[in-house]
Design a protein that fits this description.
By secondary structure, this protein is α+β, with helices and mostly antiparallel strands. It folds into two domains: 30 residues; 91 residues. Helix content is 21%, strand content 38%. The longest helix is centred in the first third of the chain and has 23 residues.
Length: 133
Amino acid sequence: MLKETRRWLVALIVVAAISAPVAYGAVATHSRNPAGQIGYVALDERFLLAPDLIRAFVPTGSVDHRCLVTFSESTIGDFIGPAPFCGARTVNGVKGVLITVWLEQPVDDIYLSLTVFQQFAKGYGQPRLYNGT
């Protein structure tokens, strides 16, 4: 009787160990990134919409509003204002992400690199100045 109880207990533990990842989601299920990639964008003075405002449109093939943009490197570290913003846009039928960076002071010469992510992006194309059209 004790042997049979022990077998059932072992079987129950094995079934619980196998079914736990299925019931609660295995690690691989939660760590997959639908986009599969993160983009890198380099901007310079060509993307100044005003002397203290950078606006760039990056084609991604996605219009998902879940996006993230962070600073990587800059030649004007002391002049950068608050965190950059991003938002989904469609420009001339092209889906992508709009990046906005406010500067503390007007600048003439700038180099700014950014790390960009947009959910379901198919890739990250060449950025272009965004002037609202």
